TrEMBL record:
<keyword id="KW-0804">Transcription</keyword>
<keyword id="KW-0238">DNA-binding</keyword>
<feature type="domain" description="HTH hxlR-type">
    <location>
        <begin position="12"/>
        <end position="110"/>
    </location>
</feature>
<dbReference type="InterPro" id="IPR036390">
    <property type="entry name" value="WH_DNA-bd_sf"/>
</dbReference>
<dbReference type="Pfam" id="PF01638">
    <property type="entry name" value="HxlR"/>
</dbReference>
<dbReference type="InterPro" id="IPR011991">
    <property type="entry name" value="ArsR-like_HTH"/>
</dbReference>
<dbReference type="InterPro" id="IPR002577">
    <property type="entry name" value="HTH_HxlR"/>
</dbReference>
<dbReference type="InterPro" id="IPR036388">
    <property type="entry name" value="WH-like_DNA-bd_sf"/>
</dbReference>
<keyword id="KW-0805">Transcription regulation</keyword>
<protein>
    <submittedName>
        <fullName>Helix-turn-helix domain-containing protein</fullName>
    </submittedName>
</protein>
Length: 165
């Protein structure tokens, strides 16, 4: 899913990664899907993104093997949502490290607060993206809860392949 240039055949793995992940919407969509918001309308509303832009990004992300389409029932209607693949779930350390960096290096807006990333396996907050800073275990989405005081929410992340109905 190239932004400006096609870097898919480059030797540099950073360029190849940015060829897929360089659009900021991609990481925000993965964040939301890992939080169980894989329905089109939930993504659109939470991200405040146009339907056309979201539709293009989702199609490209399925093609790039970051998301899979998952059928679900909405009343009597069969609909499609999106779930993270293992490739997307492996971006958890990147997302968490971005959150940690943002906590350290960007001002907290009025009414905000510290977002804690809690490793449910040990019950402690981690200040690292890939392994728990308290117990040292490798972090998996299904073991993580993000505590967001500005939303008064505790969002439990979902394992790859899961769509919360």
């Amino acid at each position: 899913m190239p932004l400006r240039s096609d870097w898919s055949t480059e030797q540099c793995p950073v360029r190849r990664s940015l060829d897929v992940l360089g659009d900021p919407w991609v990481l925000l969509i993965i964040r939301d899907v890992l939080h169980g918001r894989g329905r089109f309308d939930a993504l659109r509303d939470n991200l405040r993104i146009s339907e056309a832009v979201l539709s293009r990004r989702l199609s490209a992300m399925v093609e790039a093997d970051l998301l899979v389409r998952v059928e679900y029932r909405d009343g009597n209607r069969l609909r499609q949502g999106y779930a993270a693949t293992e490739a997307a779930a492996e971006l958890l350390p990147v997302l968490q490290q971005l959150a940690i960096w943002g906590e350290r290096h960007t001002p907290v807006p009025e009414g905000g607060g510290h977002m804690a990333m809690v490793h449910e396996a040990c019950g402690m907050e981690t200040v690292q993206g890939e392994t728990c800073s308290a117990c040292g275990e490798v972090l998996r989405p299904e073991q993580m809860t993000w505590v967001k005081p500005w939303k008064n929410a505790r969002d439990r992340l979902q394992p790859a392949g899961t769509l919360v109905a």
